Amino acid sequence: MKDITKTYTNNEITIVWKSSMCIHSRNCFNGLGQVFNPAERPWIKPENAKTETLMSQINKCPSGALSYYKNDEAKTENIEVETIAEISENGPLLLYGNITVKHNNGTVEQKNKVTAFCRCGASNNKPYCDGTHRKIDFKG
What we know:
The chain has two domains: 5-70, Alpha-Beta Plaits; 84-135, no CATH class. The protein is built from three helices and eight strands; from the N terminus they run ββααββββββα. It has helices at residues 27-31, 51-58, 132-135; strands spanning 5-9, 13-18, 66-70, 84-87, 93-96, 99-102, 108-111, 114-117. The strands form three sheets. The protein has a three-stranded antiparallel sheet, covered by helices on one side. Strands 4-5-8 form a three-stranded antiparallel sheet, with no helix packed on it. The longest helix has 8 residues, at 51-58.
């Protein structure tokens, strides 16, 4: 899977989209279709909503593929939150909070907000969910 990162700004915040993390939950365009429309280019138009509305919708992204930072703050912000694990029905294990992922090749990755881990075993982006559970009709 090709790893693409794109940014979109309304001059107050910058929205970051990471393709390799996206599980296509559809939370973005189901909740704010005037901003998030995958049928259009660019597919994210932050000028079509208020900053607070954008941040609220982005915070609902279960995989963390969508994130944002305020343009007047640093991009790398470590958020102080409790870590919570949630098993989504027929989908990924969602971890909310600050975590460190140690990969089998020795690399270490810092994650914050929401991270979606594969439970079906079929992801092409392990340990992360890539939405394959829908294609294989995973139940669990």
